[in-house]
Write a structure and sequence with these properties.
The chain has about 300 residues and is α/β, with parallel strands linked by helices. Helices cover about 45% and strands about 20% of the residues.
């Protein structure tokens, strides 16, 4: 467990634990870490786990790790992770589960069934992933998208990525978040396509095609992260604070920045997949226990907000 304070993620966990447990289908959790996340989530009152996968195999792994799973509901699917994914999606279709948690299968194996035309979980939005970072000495959390799902999103897909992240910010109590569309530079350069997309996204927000937030771009990372840097460079920003949300130009940039924040900047993070009827937790094998539990809590909050609407 990390010894660094993480007030923003602790707040998310505290809020999620107050409203009653969500029904979470945990898909093919055939590793100690994925089982542990479900056990801790249940112990903290965040989730009612439904284990979807090979019961005997999962029970043996749990016993080896010292985790008790006897009180959890099981849906037996055998050793094929795609069968487990299909069954878990079916639980959501039948309103028997409020959220999905990825276990030991590949993310695309799970999302392939989620976005299938017969899944019942698709919306009119592009599916995307959003992180929430708790960074040392930062007074506010930072949301960032998309670092996991969309490799090279086009303009319309970036619009959905931004809107998904904005709605998650609303879940966290940010009524009108400030969104920074990141690129390599803060000026429009036709040779850098991300700057053009950023400028258009800003205009789309002005015209109501992106709602619920103030959107600005293109912004280079230093200008977005440091108001002092913006002043030195003479960039006149709409606010005098760091954006609540960073929208990344592509997955390569997003994935590298997110790992730098975690491994170099000592940030802790939570993240979920959005743009579907239920939130989905898709943590990595390298994620800490704190990150897994925080992601679970984030999904619980967002699922609860979806039920309220």
């Amino acid at each position: 467990m990390s010894s660094l304070p993480r007030p923003h993620l602790d707040r998310i966990i505290a809020l999620a634990s107050k409203g009653g447990a969500a029904r979470a289908a945990i898909v093919f959790p055939c590793s100690a870490s994925s089982i542990e996340a479900g056990v801790i989530g249940q112990r903290m009152g965040l989730i009612e786990p439904i284990i979807v996968g090979p019961r005997k195999r999962i029970t043996e792994i749990a016993e080896q790790g010292g985790f008790g799973v006897d009180s959890m509901e099981f849906v037996e699917t055998g050793n094929d992770p795609t069968v487990a994914a299909r069954a878990a999606v079916g639980l959501c279709q039948e309103d028997r589960a409020d959220m999905l948690m990825k276990g030991s299968l590949h993310t695309d194996e799970l999302l392939g069934f989620v976005v299938g035309k017969d899944s019942g979980l698709r919306t009119d939005r592009r599916v995307s992933h959003t992180f929430v970072f708790d960074m040392p000495e930062q007074e506010q959390p930072l949301l960032m998208a998309d670092c996991v799902v969309n490799i090279n999103p086009n303009l319309v897909e970036k619009r959905d990525i931004a809107q998904n992240a904005i709605e998650l910010a609303h879940t966290l109590g940010l009524e009108r978040p400030y969104v920074g569309i990141l690129s390599a530079v803060e000026t429009i350069n036709p040779a850098i396509p991300g700057t053009l997309d950023a400028a258009v996204l800003s205009k789309m927000a002005e015209r109501g095609q992106i709602t619920g937030a103030t959107v600005e771009g293109p912004l280079s990372f230093d200008v977005a992260f440091s108001f002092e840097a913006a002043q030195i460079k003479g960039v006149d920003l709409q606010t005098s604070r760091r954006p609540d949300i960073f929208i990344m130009p592509n997955l390569e940039a997003g994935n590298m920045l997110y790992k730098q924040l975690v491994y170099v900047g000592h940030a802790e993070c939570a993240g979920i997949v959005l743009g579907t009827r239920v939130p989905i937790v898709v943590t990595s094998r390298a994620d800490s226990a704190e990150s897994r539990v925080s992601s679970c809590a984030l999904a619980v909050l967002h699922a609860r907000r979806g039920q309220a609407h």
